[in-house]
Input
Amino acid sequence: MQPTSDLEVPQLKAKTFRCMGTVISLTVPVAPGKGSAAGELALTAAAAAVERLFRELDARFSLYRPESEASRLARGELQLRAASQDFRDRYAEAADWRLLTEGAFTPERPDGVPDLSGLVKGFAIKEAGAALQALGHGDWCLNAGGDVLVAGSPIAGGQASWQAGIVDPQDRRTLIAAFPLGGSTAIRALATSGSAERGDHIWTSGAGVSTFRQVSVAAADIVTADVLATAIVAGGIPMLNRATSGWDVEVLAIRNDGGILATPGFRA
Output
């Protein structure tokens, strides 16, 4: 993440950890000089709170953890109606998204096993953002495997936006686009889905291969961005049209043949 303003270069500090099969980073601007030590302590405390939240959700929802509630459901040891309130709430939220996307987004694997992977990371980012706000942090960038939520600016108290980069699915070392988040704009979130990202939980609607190799969605909130990115990969052009007409989002979709479809916000 980089500030859009060239007039003032902020000091940015980051803390990272691994969870949910990816790297999660929290970046904040810190005051130089005498305030830097206090800023470092505040960042450490904030990152610890974010990590704790992610690990708690991963312990409940991960299908890669044999002891998780999700895995017990998958093995038939637990019925959905007997699951925790948290699990049933997230399942209900995912089921609502299935209706809104006309089935392009689904809370189950093709074999019927509940799989909330397409929702939980976005939900974790959202909850982590709320925790950061509650701790009094007004300027931050939270990046979980390329899904990004920001608040404020990379210049503390400023109006400059954070810049979220989108990588080329053919070459992960190359950026193909950047999108401004936060600052003076209302769009605070960007999520990317596809075979280059989290294709393990994306199943295409009907038969065949998805039209898109990768889809990035920018929105005001991270859950909407994350769900719609997954739904467009799964649902192809019809879902892309539904998303851009039904939600206030910007979309960058990369076809399997390398062609790119982009809404005006990405072409600006």
